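Dear colleague,

Thank you for sharing your sequence with our group. We've completed the structure prediction you requested, and as agreed, I am returning the results in plain text so they can be pasted directly into your records. Please verify that the sequence below matches your submission; if there's any discrepancy, let me know and we will rerun it promptly.
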Amino acid sequence: MSKQEIEFKGLENILPYLSNLLDTDKRDITIKQFKGGYSNLTYLIQTPNKEYVLRRPPLGLKISKAHDMAREYMVLESLQKAAYSKVPPPVHCCSDDKVIGAPFFIMEKVNGLILRNKIPEGMRLDEKFFAELSRNTLDGMLELHQLELKNSGLSELGRPEGFVERQVVGWSERYFKSKTDEISDMEKVSEWLLVNMPKDEAVGFIHNDYKYDNLVLSGPENPEIKAVLDWEMATVGHPLMDLGTSLAYWCEDKDDDLLKMFNLTYPSGNMKRSEVISYYESKSTLSLDNMVFYYAFGLFKVGVIAQQIYKRYTLGYADDPRFAGLIHIVAACGKKALNSITTEKI
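Please find the predicted structure tokens below.
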């Protein structure tokens, strides 16, 4: 094998395709898969002049409309029109399955620091860093929720009327369709959500998976957000559903270690969940009186996502060894959501 690194099926047609698209000799193009994701597959494309990122749906069973590549590409274009600068510049979208066996899109790579569930070895991030990162993260979410929707085209990417009900019903249905084990806590939470939906409605553009590992930061000395990644579930809906999902990922030091694997919010300096709610409320016109509902929903949704991926693993559509333990994440999400409902605490 020459300079190219072939790491995914169907690459035979992509090199000449990229060569023509990027005006680069195919022998000078290198492709590597990014490791660590749980959903859509992401690849680094390196050329002598620039780096790009390619996104495609997961292999095998299609589990959600969230894997619509043309829609995610449209989200990036619409966000640019709405003057939201924290997105990787979109480059190209291909809906032709013949090229790699699935639709895909390409965007420019934004370089910077992406925090996973552990501080990188040899890197020191102090309390001041995390305190500033907490604020930047919430400010970025608030900016997103308050974007202009009509002229940018963002309003065409969702149906805000009845959004909360559709989400609760939809995620409950997804859970039972992907169910593999008896987890009574998840079923109790599903039942509670269905009968306790808030009646108030609000409209904003929401990311739906807004957490640290989807943020590209300037670096270890500066937690400024350069770009937000993974817009596959973005839509127009109730902003507090977005905040609830982020809170579900927002772990504190006392939380179950299983839930800390998704977000580096537990080191000292980060806001606590109660502080996140207070900060958001201080900069929003929305009432946050029903945050237990939105938090419980967020935990339930995270549990369903883990359940769906685990189901794909049991069916042989994914062989990543990390997926084998996701059923324990499902149980942990159900337990924490039910505890929040019972105690009325977040």
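Summary note from our side: The longest strand covers residues 222-228.

Kind regards,
the structure core
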